[in-house]
Structure formats: C-alpha cells, structure tokens
Amino acid sequence: MIQLMSLITILLFSSCEYDNYDAPSYVFKGRLVCDGENFPFDSNRTIFNFVQQGYGKADGGTEMRINDEGHYQ
To answer: Would you tell me which of 10, 13, 33, 61 could form a disulfide with 49, CB atoms 3.0–4.6 Å apart?
Structure first.
C-alpha cells in the first residue's frame, strides 16, 4: 500500500515535457476601411475593443489603438 501511495505521489509531483508548450506566436493585425477608403481616425484618441465570442470565452476583449491610416496590431 505504501508503494502505491509513493508511486501516486511521484506521478502527481513530476512534470512532463508534453505539458510545456511554447506560447502562441500569432499576431492580430489589420486595417479598418469602408468602401476601400480609410476611416478618419485620430490616432491619439481612437481605441477599439476587439472581442472574440464563443468557445466559452467571456471577457472584456482586447483594446487596440488605431493609427491614422487605419492599421492596428
């Protein structure tokens, strides 16, 4: 019984290489346009809130600043 408890304890406190994943390297970037033309953005004040719905995700989104040409990253 003690051997079984020791084995379970060792398995619980040991780490596995398969659990150590690198962070994703994706970049969310784009450009906001209307009918092929830029919106008139003020890059000093314009902040958009991007929200992903679904997958059980419920958060406030990600704020991104938009530059004068409508690009964000």
So the answer is: 61
Cα dist. 52→8, 55, 57, 58, 62 in Å? 40, 9, 7, 8, 9
Q: Tokens 């679904």 identify what position?
A: 54
With a CB cutoff of 8 Å and minimum separation 6, the contacts of 71 are: 29, 30, 31
pTM above 0.70, yes or no: no
The DSSP element (H or E) to which 63 belongs, if any, is strand 62-65
The string of pLDDT tens digits covering residues 46-68 is 678 888 777 776 777 888 888 87
